[in-house]
Amino acid sequence: MTKADIIEQVYENLGGLSKKESAEIVEKVFETIKTTLERGEKIKISGFGNFVVREKKERTGRNPQTGEEIRILPRKVLTFKPSQVLKNAING
Amino acid sequence: MTKSDLVEAIAATSPDRTKKDVEGAVNTIFRAMCDALVRGERIEIRGLGSFRVKERVERVGRNPKTGEMVRIPTRRVPHFIVGKALRARVENVEPEVG
């Protein structure tokens, strides 16, 4: 499934919106999600899951090939935690 | 930001769309994604990332309270891989070379 398939479903479900308008609204949804996450804020979609930006502290790692010690800088990572509803639906 | 905050934010910047349309669109998007994952289908959203369903094999676990052995059956779990563009935006780091 790609964004085009999602746009198609929005177009079919909503009625009254053109394909172009459906595409615009879908783009806007994903863009809003991305800018929110970029600010470090989480996104909670009930029935689907939560997107959470987690702060990782600096730590010392090791290059497994050379054994050399390297500093891993503090960074942020984006994680997705699926909702129980989604997990149950997938196993249903 | 919750789903309803998302609807509000988009409705506020979309004067030609009714809030009902925005809400319908948001609900349709996540419903479609849910349905795809239930079918075992992979989802790829350019600029955001991709979702797929992973198989977890059966294993024997232990109830940490009672120490009792329990069989954890094979199950499927949804998995998200963040896209390169979003990863760079969120992590605020230079994209890796190679």
Short description:
Chain A has helices spanning 3-14, 19-38, 84-91, and strands at residues 43-45, 49-56, 59-62, 69-72, 75-82. With 92 residues, chain A is α+β, with helices and mostly antiparallel strands. Chain A has a three-stranded antiparallel β-sheet with strand order 1-2-5.
Describe the overall structure.
The complex is a heterodimer of chains A (92) and B (98). With 92 residues, chain A is of the alpha+beta class. Chain A contains three helices and five strands. In chain A, the strands form two sheets. Chain A has a three-stranded antiparallel beta sheet. Chain A has a two-stranded antiparallel sheet with strand order 3-4. In chain A, strand 3 (59-62) and strand 4 form a beta hairpin. The radius of gyration of chain A is 19 Å and the shape is elongated. The model of chain A has no long low-confidence stretch (mean pLDDT 94). Chain B has 98 residues and is of the alpha+beta class. Chain B has two domains: 1-41; 43-93, IHF-like DNA-binding proteins (HU Protein, Chain A, Irregular). Helix content of chain B is 39%, strand content 28%. Chain B has three helices and five strands. In chain B, the strands form two sheets. A three-stranded antiparallel beta sheet of chain B has the order 1-2-5. A two-stranded antiparallel ribbon of chain B has the order 3-4. In chain B, a hairpin with a 3-residue loop joins strand 1 (43-45) and strand 2 (49-56). In chain B, helix 1 (3-12) crosses helix 2 (19-38). The longest helix of chain B has 20 residues, at 19-38. The chains are: A alpha+beta (92), B alpha+beta (98).
